[in-house]
Amino acid sequence: MYFDEIVKDVFQEINSLEGRGEVASYIPELRKVDPEKFGVYLSTIDNSGFGIGDCYEAFSIQSIAKVLSLSLAYRMLGEKIWERLGVEPSGTAFNSLVQLEVENGIPRNPFINAGALVISDILLTKLDHPKEDFLAFIRSLSNNSKIDYSPRIATSEKNVGYRNVALCNLIKSFGNIENEPADVLDFYFNLCSLEVNCQELSNLFLFLANDGCTLSGRRVLGQSQAKRVKALMQTCGFYDESGEFSFKVGLPGKSGVGGGIVAVHPKQYAIAVWSPRLNHKGNSYKGMKFLEEFTTKSQLSIF
Ligand code: DON
Fold first, then answer.
1. Among the atoms of ligand 1, which is closest to the Cα of residue 64?
2. I need a surface site. Which of 47, 50, 99, 200 has the fewest CB within 10 A?
3. What is the pLDDT of residues 211-225, one digit of tens each?
4. Are 257 and 27 in contact (CB under 8 A)?
C-alpha cells in the first residue's frame, strides 16, 4: 500500500514538532491523559490498513461520536430530521448558546453541542433501549464487540456539564427537546465517552468512505444520506475552525476534545489521528498539522 510510506514520513515529521496547546481540562478525567500521545491509523475501502505510534491505545472520542449518532438518527428518521435542526456552519464555538435564543431553539447543525443534544433527544424517542441500541449500532459498524462507553468519563463530564445543561434546557424551552433534559444529557455524555483507538476509529468511518455501506456490504445510510453527512463534516466538523480545516486539509472530518480527528476520503480511505494537545479552538494541534501534511504529500484531498 503506497500510503504507508507517506503516513510514516509525515508522522515522523509532525512527531518531532514541539507539542503546542493544552489537553482539554474542563472535563476533569480528560486532564489525566498523557499530552504527548500521538497515533495514526489509515484504513482503505479495499480492506487494508496501516498504523503508527499510539494507534492501538483507546481514547475518548467525544464529539467525533456526533457523526455516528447523526448517522443512526438520519437512518431512522430520513429527511424529516431537518425539521429539528439546520445544516449551516455556526461560526461559533462548539458549546455556544447565542444563536439558539434568536433562532428559536433550532440548532444550526448536528455537530455543535446544541445539535448533538437534539439528535440525542431523537434517538431517545426512537430507540427502545437507547444506550444499548446505540452501542450495538457502533459495534455493528466495525464488527467489534469490545467498543464501550467509559462510565468514568461520562460521570466526570456530567458533574461539571453546566453549559450542556443550559443548552438542553434552553432548547427544551423552545419545544425542540421531547424528553426530560436529564435523560437527554445522560445519553449525550455517554456517547461522548465512547473509547476507541485509531484503528477502530478509522474502521468505524469506512462506511462513509464507501458511500454508506460497510465493507461487508451492509447498507447503513443511503448514498445521498452518506453524501450529506460528509458535506456536514466538511462544513461544520470543526466548528469555528471548519473553514481552516477545509482550506488546509481538504477532506470531510470531525474532531473531538479528546484530541482525536477522523477524516474520510470518499471511495478511498478513512484516517484517524490522536494527539491530545488542543489548539485554542478545541481541535487537536498535531492532528490538524498531520492531516494537512498528509493530504499535501499524498495529493489526495477532495479538491
Ligand atoms: O459536550 C462537550 O463539551 C464534550 N462532551 C464534547 C465536545 C467536543 O468534543 C468538541 N470538539 N472538539
1. 9
2. 47
3. 999 999 999 999 999
4. yes
Domain residue limits, the chain? 3-298
Describe the strand order of the beta sheet including 269-274 as a list of residue ranges. Answer: 49-53, 39-44, 269-274, 260-265, 253-255
Q: Which of 33, 92, 96, 113 most suits a substitution to test ligand 1, by most atoms within 8 Å of the C-beta?
A: 113
Cβ partners under 8 Å of residue 143, min gap 6: 214, 216
Q: Domain 3-298: give its CATH code.
A: 3.40.710.10
Identify the residue whose C-alpha is closest to ligand 1 atom 4: 62
Find the Cα–Cα–Cα–Cα dihedral 139, 145, 146, 152, rounded to 10°: 60
CA 258 to chain centre: 10
Say whether 63 counts as a known binding-site residue: yes
pLDDT at 19: 85
- In this structure, the residue with its CA closest to atom 12 of ligand 1 is 256
| Residue 239 marked ligand-binding | yes
Predicted model pTM? 0.97
Residue 1 clears pLDDT 80, i.e. is over it: no
Q: Are 279 and 20 in contact (CB under 8 A)?
A: yes
φ and ψ at residue 88, rounded to 5 degrees: -105, 145
Was 257 annotated as part of a binding site?
yes
Taking the centre of ligand 1 as the mean of its atom positions, its distance from the CA of residue 194, in whole angstroms, is: 12
Distance (angstroms) between ligand 1 centre and the Cα of 48 equals 30
- Pocket of ligand 1 from Cβ distances under 6 Å: 62-63, 94-95, 113, 157, 164, 192, 255-257, 282-283
Rounded to an integer, the average pLDDT of 90-118 is 97
Q: What ligand 1 atom has the least distance to the C-alpha of 62?
A: 9
Full 3-state SS string of 15-44: HCCCCCCECCCCCHHHHHCCCCCCEEEEEE
CA distance 222 to 158: 34
Q: For this complex, say whether ipTM is above 0.95.
A: yes
